[in-house]
Design goal:
By secondary structure, the chain is α+β, with helices and mostly antiparallel strands. The protein is built from 17 helices and twelve strands. The strands form four sheets. Strands 3-11-12-4-5-8 form a six-stranded antiparallel β-sheet. A two-stranded antiparallel sheet has the order 1-2. A hairpin with a 5-residue loop joins strand 9 and strand 10. Helix 5 packs parallel to helix 7. It is globular, with a radius of gyration of 34 Å. The termini are far apart. The relative contact order is 0.11. InterPro entries: GGT_lsub (IPR043138), GGT_peptidase (IPR000101), Ntn_hydrolases_N (IPR029055). This is Gamma-glutamyltranspeptidase 1. GO terms for molecular function: glutathione hydrolase activity.
Length: 473
């Protein structure tokens, strides 16, 4: 006896049905109530056509079509194990639209900021013959208005400055400090107070950092760097989608603040929609004082006492002594050299420049070219880059504030070395990856950071500034 698979059975049945329809015609085929059957004679298939009822023909046709549909679905992977639900967010089901940002080519200089009016302010400073640091400070003052949900006078920043004619880079740490009265048990009763509310506020370094950078590399009068932002503040700026989303996310706390509620809500107590004009009047007044008194206004000038009193009235612990004692740090940059001779400079700890140096050194060894992004190579290229990031960020647990680490020199020399990069490349598996941090040497996992703003500025003479600012929200 010869046996047939389901697919052979369906194939024979369907071919016989087509044969009857082709040679007898649809109506004739149904009237004759005939279909094919097979018999095995000497292992050959002999087709005969006995008559049966019409309803059996219809049933068989339906069954054949169903089986064909199921077979097609199976071949297309409809019954394969689903993994999409494990992804968060899931893979897009429709192609992602291109970025709305326009590609620009600059002939002389460039100012890149995440606040549209701020890029123009930086450009105008260049046109007044300002230095790259002048342009950076002016741009950041503006960003502190239109992106006040991410950065501003109450926060701090990291800045890397490159002076081309010196062939030298400088880095500035102007991040917040913990108040003097902070204790290890301060947040034990309510850990949430370390993230929201007056006890979460650090001693701000933003303005002091601007002032330090200006005194070392500034050219134009200090007031000229702030006046464009004062004008924008008084004329008003438009709420962006990013800012609107941040308001909705923290609605309760925003509406508790008298000034923020006045600026961002309408008469019906709802937030103003995206595109609405906001005039943060109190901030405008503060900027005018800073323009006239200089960058120390918030630390030992007329604003210091007012600021401290506001914080303490809300339950904070910042004192006038905290403000007076705050200092920025000028640090030696992280640096490395790539195979093509290019030099890399970035922020040392507590910034993440070491991680970026480790990543770029690792990828530099692959000798990527434009062909690395060809369709046949792009998956491997992305895989290598992602794995390099994973191995680097696993080392994040070794990092911290250099003022409180014992083995700083060892960490810096190791993570920025080409020997470590070579070792990482040897560990990268070209055919698999892992979601377990321990695979990459990670000791703990940190949550994604949110709420930063960044500016990148390149002057006509080759000087450059890269600055990342945050209020840690």
């Amino acid at each position: 006896m010869v046996t047939f698979t389901v697919y052979q059975f369906l194939s024979i049945s369907f071919q016989c049905l087509i044969w009857r329809l082709e040679f007898a015609g649809p109506a004739s085929a149904l009237r004759s109530s005939t279909i094919c059957r097979w018999e095995i004679i000497n292992k050959d298939i002999l087709l005969t056509t006995p008559r049966i009822k019409t309803k059996y023909v219809v049933i068989l046709v339906i069954l054949v079509l169903i089986c064909i549909g199921l077979g097609t679905a199976h071949l297309m992977g409809a019954f394969s194990k689903k993994v999409g639900h494990l992804l968060s967010p899931p893979n897009p089901v429709t192609p992602i639209k291109p970025s709305a940002s326009q590609l620009h080519i600059f002939n002389k200089a460039a100012v890149c900021a995440d606040g549209i009016p701020c890029a123009k302010i930086g450009k105008d400073i260049f046109e007044k013959n300002g230095s790259v640091v002048d342009a950076a400070i002016a741009t950041l003052f503006c960003n502190g208005i239109v992106n006040m949900h991410s950065m501003g006078l109450g926060g701090g920043f990291f800045m890397t400055i490159y002076i081309r004619n010196e062939k030298k880079a400088y880095t500035l740490n102007a991040r917040e400090f913990a108040p003097i009265n902070t204790t290890a048990s301060l947040y034990n009763n309510d850990p949430k107070t370390s993230k929201k509310g007056p006890l979460a506020v650090g001693v701000p370094g933003e303005l002091k950092g601007y002032w330090a950078a200006y005194k070392r590399f500034g050219k134009l009068p200090w007031k000229d760097l702030i006046q464009p932002s004062i004008d924008l503040c008084e004329q008003g700026y438009k709420i962006t989608l990013s800012q609107y989303d941040s308001l909705v996310t923290d609605e309760e706390n925003i509406k508790k603040d008298t000034h923020l509620k006045t600026w961002f809500t309408e008469d019906d107590d709802k937030f103003k929609p995206t595109g609405s004009v906001v005039k943060p009047t109190k901030l405008c007044e503060t900027l005018k004082v800073i323009a006239n008194e200089g960058g120390d206004a918030l630390y030992n000038g007329s604003l210091a006492k007012i600021f401290v009193q506001d914080i303490q009235d809300m339950g904070g612990i910042i004192t006038e002594e905290d403000m007076k004692n705050y200092t920025v740090e000028w640090l030696d940059p992280v640096q490395t050299q790539f195979r093509n001779g290019d030099h890399f400079y970035s922020m040392p700890m507590p910034g993440g420049g070491l991680l970026l140096a480790m990543i770029l050194n690792t990828l530099d060894g692959y000798n990527f070219t434009s062909e690395s992004l060809y369709p046949e190579n792009i998956v491997q290229t992305y895989h290598r880059a992602i794995e390099a990031y994973k191995y680097a960020y696993a080392r994040r647990s070794d990092m911290g504030d250099m003022n409180f680490l014992d083995n700083v020199d060892e960490i810096v020399s190791n993570m920025s070395s080409h020997q470590l990069a070579d070792h990482v490349r040897s560990l990268i598996n070209e055919t698999k990856t892992s979601n377990d941090p321990k695979t990459y040497g990670g000791v703990f996992v940190t949550k994604n950071d949110h709420g930063t703003a960044h500016v990148s500025i390149l002057a006509e003479n080759g000087d450059a500034v890269s600055a990342t600012s945050t209020i840690n929200l």
